[in-house]
Amino acid sequence: MAGGGKGGRSLEETPTWAVAVVCFLLVLVSILIEHSIHLVGQWLTKKHKRALCEALEKLKSELMLLGFISLLLTVGQAPLSEICISERLGRTMLPCVKEKTSGNKEGFKGSDDGEGKVYNDEVVGRKLLWSEAPGVDFRRILAGGGGGSDKCARRGKVPLISSKAISQLHYFIFVLAVSHVMYCIATMALGRAKMKRWKLWEKECQTMEYQLSHDPQRFRFARETTFGRRHLHFWSRTPVLIWIVCFFRQFVRSVPKVDYQTLRHGFIMAHLAPYSTKRFDFQKYIKRSLEEDFKVVVGISPIIWLFAVLFLLFYTHGWYSYYWLPFIPLFIILLVGTKLQVVVTRMGLEIQGDGDVIKGVPVVRPADHLFWFNRPRLILYIIHFVLFQNAFQLAFFVWAWYEFGLRSCFHENKGDIIIRLSMG
Question: Please, are residues 143 and 128 in contact by the beta-carbon 8 Å criterion?
């Protein structure tokens, strides 16, 4: 049976067994995914992981949102491709454009118009030829014909976005969501792995030897305590020096044992009875807090989706986004790490400000004024943004590799690939 034109065979020309097999596979995969998520939810409920259960529900909401986006892209593919814009507007802010040259060079494929001029524009990873000769216009560079392109061509215009481009955008949104979830899960797994060391410190805090070595009736100078020897120096009172020292400290023992034990003691004194020192498990409390925070970072809020749109806008030829965009999360996360070190040091300065002599273990007092804009939770939202930005870089790389190949116009040189992956 003959094909059905440019778009291939329609359903009326397709064997019913082929349609049934495809539908069966789609339904089967969907049911397996839904059942797997249900089993994970039951396991988390059995383990009393309430926060992770809520995170799983948020993940399911994200999947449902992706389903709506997929549906809208599918339904709106034809109408969007029939929206026409002028040829001049269609040439603006292209992601991949190669400038005109006067001859063929190595690695450059073009067409000669007979007067020694070669033109080649690489649009979205494909090299598409166009010419300024009479009768040949910009419409010839458009990818994927179809009714929308033909309709706009008859009016002397070009489609706002072609059907093929909509399909590729569909794939990118899916890859972005998967990458973001993978980044969040990997980050939580790494956080829990780091906290395993803190479990040993927690057990040490509950031993009799620790209680005797940290006699609550003992008087000492604040700067002579272990916590004071780490944080109370000449540079602690200089705004510039404290940021410089704390910047480098985050790379070496970002959470040392003395800071953990001092923060643990300060938390107990602020929120619990003093005799709870032996019984309270601070490490488990932090682990539960991490699970609570996971609910925030696993979701993709409207603001985050807005950033995704802006990132796509930045991938314009001539803006060199691959040189500066991947460095934004690196700069932000180093700034956050430095700020957290500064917060701990300033808590030590507040102890010394209360008096040079202290009784027992130094009692730190975490407070909102130590953080930016008096909002400690702002740090969590910043980390959320960094995770998404990293996921965006990874998703864009994987998507461009799959759609256009490793050495497409999106990755014209190896440096671009190295920067994008190493920064992530």
Answer: yes
> Angle between the 414-423 and 377-404 helix axes, to the nearest 10 degrees?
150
**What is the band of 107 on the pLDDT scale with cuts at 50, 70, 90?**
very low
Across 328-400, where does the E strand assignment appear? 357-359
Burial track 10-19 (b if 16+ CB lie within 10 A, e otherwise):
eeeeeeeeee
What are 134-183's pLDDT values in tens digits? 443 444 434 344 555 677 788 888 888 888 888 888 888 888 888 888 88
DSSP state, residue 11: G
Distance (Å, whole) CA 222 – CA 242: 18
Q: Assess contact for 137 and 87: CB atoms under 8 A.
A: yes
Distance in angstroms between the alpha carbons of the first and the last residue of the chain: 50
Among residues 67, 63, 64, 45, the alpha carbon closest in space to that of 54 is found at 45
Helix (H) or strand (E) holding 159: strand 158-159
Rounded Cα distance between 211 and 218, Å, is 12
What is the phi-psi region of residue 285: left when phi exceeds 0, alpha when psi lies from -120 to 50, beta otherwise?
Answer: alpha
* SS3 (DSSP) at 132: coil
Q: Do 393 and 326 meet the contact criterion of CB atoms below 8 Å apart?
A: yes
Nearest to 388 by CA among 37, 62, 91: 62
- At residue 93, what is the residue type? M
Cβ-contact 262, 362 below 8 angstroms: yes
- pLDDT at position 58 is 79
- Cross-strand partners of 111: 119
Say if CB 131 and CB 119 are below 8 A apart: yes
Q: Three-state SS for 106? A: coil
Read off the pTM. Answer: 0.71
Phi/psi at 101 (5° precision): -130, 170
Residue 128: strand, helix, or coil = strand
Task: Write out the H or E segment, with its range, that includes residue 82.
Answer: none
Q: Rounded to whole angstroms, how far apart are CA atoms 400 and 312?
A: 13
pLDDT band at 215 (very low <50, low <70, confident <90, very high): low
Helix/strand/coil for 143 = coil
- Residue whose token pair is 């690196």: 330
Cα angle: 256, vertex 259, 261; to 5 degrees: 105
